[in-house]
Amino acid sequence: YEMFTAHPACRSPRSSVTAMGSTFEDRDPGTTSTDDHPPGATSEGSEAVELRKEAWVMALYVAVCLLAALAAVAEKAPDGHVRALGIVWGTTIGLALAHAFAFRVSARIVAQGRIRRSDANVVLAQLVGAAGVAVLATIPILLWPATAEFDVVRAVLALFISLVGFEVARSSGAGRTRSLLYGATLLLAAVSIAVVKNILSGH
Hints:
The protein is an all-alpha fold. It contains seven helices and no strands.
C-alpha cells in the first residue's frame, strides 16, 4: 500500500493541487500576499483620506461664510483694505476657533475625556483648510485697489467653489460639460446659502 500511495500517480487530486500550489508559490516570489502588508497600512490610508476630507469641508465652509460676510457689507474705498482684511481674517479665525473648540469638546465626550492623536490631526487639517481659503482671499486684497477688492474677493471665492465642484464631477468620471454644470450648480447652492444666511441675520 505504501508503495502505491508514494507514487505520484496514486496521490489524491487534493494532494496534487496542494503540491502544485506550493511549487507555484516557490517559483513565483513576486506574488504578494495580503499578509505582507504592514498592519497599519490600511488604517493610515483611510486616516489620510479623512484628514483631506476634513480640510476640504472646512475650506468650503469658510468660503461660503466669507461670501455671506462680504455680501453683507457696503464698500468704502478709504478704509477698504482694512475692512476687507478684517472681514476675511476675522471671519476665518472666528469660525476656525469655534469649530476647533466644538470638535475638541465633543471628542472628549466620546473618548472619556481624552484627546486622541487622530482627533488632534483632524483639528489641524481643519485649520489648514480654513487658513488656505483665507490666504486665497487675501491675495486680491493686496493686489487690487480698494475700490475693486470686494468684488474681486467675491469672484475668487466663487471661482474656488466652482472649481471644487468641477473637480468632484471630473473625479467621478463626468465629462467636461457636465462637470462645468455641476460646478455652476454648486456655486448657485453656495450663493443661495449665503443669501439665506444674510436674510435670516437681518443684513
